[in-house]
Amino acid sequence: xxxxxxxxxxxxxxxxxxxDKRHFYEVECINSKWSxxxxxxxxxSSLFERLLLSNGEANKQRVLDLALKGNEIAKPEDIVKDPxxxxxxxxxxxxxxxxxxxEEALVRQIEKFLxxxxxxxxxxxTQQRATFGNVxxxxxxxxxxxxxxxxxxxxxxxxxxxxxxxxxxxxxxNYYAAEVNDENDNPPIGLILCTDKGNVDMQYAxxxxxxxxxxSKYVTYMPDKEQLLAQxxxxxxxxxxxxxx
Length: 245
Fold this sequence. Notes:
- With 245 residues, this protein is α/β, with parallel strands linked by helices.
- 45% of the residues lie in helices and 19% in strands.
- It contains ten helices and six strands.
- A six-stranded mixed beta sheet has the order 1-6-5-4-3-2, with helices on both faces.
- The chain is globular and about 60 Å long.
- The mean pLDDT is 89.
């Protein structure tokens, strides 16, 4: 037992029967200095399963790596989850929202949003201006990840992801790389949060770009744990069958 965690932390951890999953939350709790409430929330939101599903390449080695090391942030894709969970906004599941309302709600709950984003994130601001010629554009939300030393530009979409959103974010990333980054910064990262990613179309929309652009679904309710677990098992089984060929 680690002296850095309280007995209350361990009471929460002992409720997890799977030893790999339990050790992941223990490591992450120590590394991220989660309070008991924050630990409880991460367990309830199935962070372990969401990280396994984030790039569609879940396998037994990935399970073992997460269990032993937690979620190490070494490359841009390491910061991505799928889905993101915004249950803390208190928005009914089927209530339509404007993008500006979603942005405002996330800013009001910025501490909880930072917890959901993960390690190393610092909030820069909303509606950050990018000017091309005499035309002004505005990035929905900008963060800086001190581990990756990269700006992270987030675009919020309250509809299914459309290809034009990728092109717009790619333009913003080029602007930040040329006009905002200093010599110590790594290339900026783009993340589109949307209600539905689709599958086939986005392989083409996101493919072939030199910038790091990712798309993830977000939900405003706690995801079904059994459903996420079934998805993880299905992806692991698919990868195992592919490796046998």
